[in-house]
Amino acid sequence: MKKFYVIILLVLVLSGTGFSQVTVAPVTVHLSDAERNGYIVVRNNSNITPWEVSIDMKFGYPVSDSSGKTVMYFPEKESDTDPSAVKWINFYPRKFVLQPLEEQTVRIAAKPKNVKEGEYWGRPVIISKAVNAEDTTGKGNINAGMSVEFRTVIALNYRRGSVKTGISFDNLTGKFEENKFVLFAKVKREGNAAYIGNLLVNITNEKGSIVKETKQEISVYYELNKRIEIETGKLPAGKYNISVQLNTDREETGGKILKGNTEEKKITITVN
User: Fold this and answer.
1) pLDDT value at residue 43
2) Are 143 and 201 within one domain?
3) 239, 264 contact by CB (below 8 A)
4) Which among 10, 262, 22 is positioned nearest to 154, based on CA atoms?
5) C-alpha–C-alpha distance, residues 34 and 25, integer Å
6) Which of 54, 84, 147, 243 could form a disulfide with 202 if both were Cys (CB 3.0 to 4.6 A apart)?
7) Pair (184, 255) in one structural domain
8) Per-residue confidence of the chain (272 residues) as pLDDT tens digits?
9) Do residues 130 and 236 both lie within one domain?
10) Which residues contact 80 (CB under 8 A, 6 or more apart)?
11) CB neighbours of 267 closer than 8 A, spacing ≥ 6?
12) Are residues 126 and 171 in the same domain?
C-alpha cells in the first residue's frame, strides 16, 4: 500500500533568536562601502534533530499605532523612495541542512549599483524547520505529523557616503495605574540613517530617592508613538519625578552604532 503523509504546517514569526532550536548571531549586520562583506552564524542547538535552513530578505522597519503598540512593518511593494537593500544583498550559502549541534557561517555580500548617499535597510529572514526522519519499516501506514516552521528576523543596514542620525522627542505624558507608570512619547528620527540606541527611565520621589531605573533598546527608523510601562508596585501617595532619555550609547558587536544626539524630557506625576 502506498504511504501518505499528512503534514500540518505551523508558521511562527519571531524576532531575535526566538524559541527555535536554531539560533542566529549577530542579530544586526552593519555593512558599508568600506566593508561590503559580513556574516552570520546559524547554529542547531538540538542534539537529536537535523534542521533545514533557508534565508530570505525583506524590506521592513518598526512602526506604531496611536496606542503605542509597535510592530514590524513589511510593505507589500517597495516604492522608489524606500531605502531598501534587498535587491543587492546576497547570502552564501542560502539554503543548507544543519546536523545536531552543527553550525554554519553564512557570508553576506553587498553589491550596490547606482545607489545614492545614505543608509539602506533590509531584514534577513532565517527560516528553519526540523527534518523529519523517514519511516524505513516498509509499512503502508498513513503518517500524520507536524512540521513547525520558525522565522527569525534580524536587521541589516548598508551605509554609503555621509550618514548621520538624530532624534527629536516631544509630547512626553504619563499616568500611574495598576501599580505602574504608563508613559507616552512621540519620537522622530532626524538625518538620513536610523536612530539605534537606548531608552533610559529614572523615577525619583519628592525626597530625590530613586524609586526605579530601567533601560531598554530602541530603534527609530522614521517615527514612533512610544508607550513605556514601568512596574513599580504600590507606591505611597505623592509626586514623582520622571526622566526619560534617548541616547546612542548602546554597545553592540563590531561597535558600529551610528552616534547621534542625546535627548531628555522630564515630567512629574502625582500618585494619589
Assistant:
1) 97
2) no
3) no
4) 22
5) 22
6) 243
7) yes
8) 444 333 334 444 444 444 569 999 999 999 999 999 999 999 999 999 999 999 999 999 999 999 999 999 999 999 989 999 999 999 999 999 999 999 999 999 999 988 999 999 999 999 999 997 554 444 444 444 456 889 999 999 999 999 999 999 988 999 999 999 999 999 999 999 999 999 999 999 999 999 999 999 999 999 999 999 999 999 999 999 999 999 999 877 655 889 999 999 999 999 99
9) no
10) none
11) 172, 173, 174, 183, 241, 242
12) no
The three grid cell numbers given for residue 197, joined into one nine-digit string: 540606541
User: CA angle 223-224-229, nearest 5°?
Assistant: 155
The tally of domains found in the chain comes to 2
Backbone angles phi, psi at 215, to 5 degrees: -145, 130
224 and 266 part of one domain: yes
Spatial separation of the C-alpha atoms in residues 158 and 35, rounded to whole Å: 9
Q: For the CA atoms of 253, 255, 257, 258, what is the dihedral angle to 10 degrees?
A: -160
Domain hosting 188: range is 165-271
DSSP classification of residue 86: G
Distance of alpha carbon 104 from alpha carbon 96, whole angstroms: 9
Q: Among residues 160, 183, 203, which one ends one of the domains?
A: 160
Cα–Cα distance, 230 to 43 (Å, whole number): 35
**How, if at all, do strands 37-44 and 22-25 pair?**
antiparallel
Residue 238 to residue 133: CA distance in whole angstroms: 64
Residue 228 has which C-alpha cell? 513605556
| Residues 85 and 199 grouped into a single domain | no
Show the cell assigned to 257.
Answer: 552604532
Cis peptide preceding 93, ω within 30 of 0: yes
Looking at 123, 141, 160, the residue that finishes a domain is 160
d(CA 124, CA 107): 12
